[in-house]
Amino acid sequence: MHSNFPVLTGRYALSYHTFYVLFWVIFACSLNATAVQAAESPLTLSDAMSRAMAQNPRLQVFGLRLDGLQGRRITADLNPALEAGAEVENFLGTGDVRGLVGAELTLTLSSTIELGGQRQARVSAIDSRLGLVEAERRAETLDLLGQVTQRFVATLALQEKLQLAADAVSLAQSTLDIVTRRAEQGATPQAEVLRARAALTQSQIEQSRLQSELVSRKMALALLWGDTSVEFTQLQGDLFQFGASDSFESLYQRVSDSPAIQVYASEQRVREAEIQLARSQSESDINWQVGVRRMEEIDDIAFTAGFSVPLFPAQRNRGEVRAALAARDEIRFQREATLLNLHSRLFDAYQQRQQSIAAVEQIRSQMLPNLSEALTQTREAYESGRYSYVEWMAAQRELLAAQRALVDAATTALLNQALIEQLTAQPLAGR
């Protein structure tokens, strides 16, 4: 019910309705300010990893798989079911067995006695699959974190390149101003002004292209935790922080204990459990039955009992045992093949990381200082009329190319570092 009673007294009294509207306006504005502040806060690698682990659908399915296996374990742990039956003989015939005169009604209760530890073998097989799913979840988590790191590094590198593009635009604008001033003084032809304007336009186009690519990279990163919109404006990280590294032999030793290899160990246990289950099914089960029989003709009741045993079950089950043994042995060779593949990938990543870090140091300590000084001297020489516009532009391009090469080398080092950490399931020293 609408009320017109004021909530404030005096000159600026407000009705309940007006106060209610203002309250929600203020509340919505505060929420919007909080959202803007959250969106403006930079995204760190640890934040991206936390979001991906909490929200990525690829990891959520493992909980459902475990729930399903727990349900199958409950079923596997059950004893054979009891079966009740009824049988009527010698009824609705002719002569002495017409109607129910000679009928015999038998009520039975039957079941199976499992031998060879079949129930325990079934439970063990499910338990081993539970362990396999856990190992697969660890491997999938590691793979996901590797993807997050790689996309984060690639996006961070593009963010750095966008800053270089902004510097290139500023440099092109400064160049245009200098060339225009010299042209007005009659010290350089007007054609150089036109070329400087074209260079500025080209720099702006490249900046726009990088901005568009950065938006796509951010979206690709956000998709790893299930977001279809980007809620962060920039990434926070050091593209040139590499840390120390152990020897290749030490890193490869860790690979044998990584989740990628532990999956094979868990699968090996699954195959062993399947072998045990197949062997347990080679034992003969005893089917038993007891009952009560009612004979209408003589008006008497008698008990019945019986059992049955399958013949030659071991021979009939040899194929299953053989197939289970072959599946187990196959896992060993798959593990060895995977280790060889991981050795190759780790070696390549290790070598590329080492080479890229060395390249970063050389570019930083030698190329950039030399090219920066060369650009300064070339600009001064151009302004004094001793160097041409072409020579000045060549010095600019060389410096910009060296800066981009520095970012590319650092990116390559970090991407290979992320791969090494993914393969070994451990961060490198000093991270």
UniProtKB/TrEMBL annotation:
Range of residues in the leader sequence: none
InterPro entries recorded: MdtP/NodT-like, OMP_efflux
GO molecular function: efflux transmembrane transporter activity
Pfam families the record matches: OEP
Protein name in UniProt: Transporter
